[in-house]
Structure formats: C-alpha cells, structure tokens
Fold each of these.
Amino acid sequence: MQPLLSSPALLLVLAVTAMAEPGPRITTDTAEYCHSLANRLSGMPAASREPSRSLAAAGMKLCGDGHVRTGIAKLRRAVRAAQAAAP
C-alpha cells in the first residue's frame, strides 16, 4: 500500500496550510495609543460635534482611569462618528 502523499508533497501541504491560517491578532492597548487616537480625532473637522465629542471625552476618561481597552473602543467609535459626519 502506497502513502497518499509523498514526503515532499506532504511538506508542501503543511506549509501552505500554515500560511493560510491567520496569525496572532495584534491589539494595541496602551495609553500611548489612546493619545494617538485622540490626536487623530482632534484633527478631524467633525470632532467637535456630537456624538464624537462625548465619545472622545468618555474614552479619554476611561483611558485615564486605567480602562485602556474600553477607552480605545470609545475613541475608535468617536473617530468613526467623526468620519461619518464629515461632508
């Protein structure tokens, strides 16, 4: 009985499978990233309008209180809201 795949073919299948699998998810959850998002938002024309303004304020408060991930989520929502409100 012959094997289904020869050794080189099996290695190729394993290599292709390994490349197709998604890599580790990279998350940025630092206070510096909070400030980076806030700076990005401050340069947007619609940042001073609601809901961007209140989302940004809540996000920065959360980051300052040590709830960085939740703060980043709020800041990202603020950026998206400002982008949607832009003319």
Amino acid sequence: MSQLISIIQRLQTMQNAVEQEDIPQRFFEVNGRVLCQVKYFAPSNTYEVEEYDKDNNKQKYQFDDIDIAAIEIFDIVQEEKTAN
C-alpha cells in the first residue's frame, strides 16, 4: 500500500510542478528498466501513461482521475516485480 501512496504523491507533485515545467513528466522503473513514462497535461487535468513492454513497444493510456492513473502505474510496476 505504501508503494501506491508513493505513486500518488509523485503524481500530485507533477500537478504542482506545472508552473516550473512545460509538461511535467516522470519515469517509473524496476531494477533499472523503465516501465512507463507519465505526463501531466494541466489544461485538461489529465495524465498520459505510456507503457513500454520488453521489446520497447509503447501503449498510451489517458486518465482524468489521479487515483485511476496511480492504480494503472502500480499494476505495471507490480507485474514487473512478480515476473522477476
């Protein structure tokens, strides 16, 4: 549960960084492998999660709810942790 809270805090930090960055973005990784990139778009208050598979193929998802975005990121990270 603390990992989910940590993800939500990072997403909230992105919301607060809008004045400092053009499009705030963060990477989430496990064991040095980038699993996804998250961007926050302030005008629409949406998050874009770009997930990378093992072959670096990309899939993008849009979320307008911070909790749902955090759960998606959490699932991506947990899936990688259980695969290893």
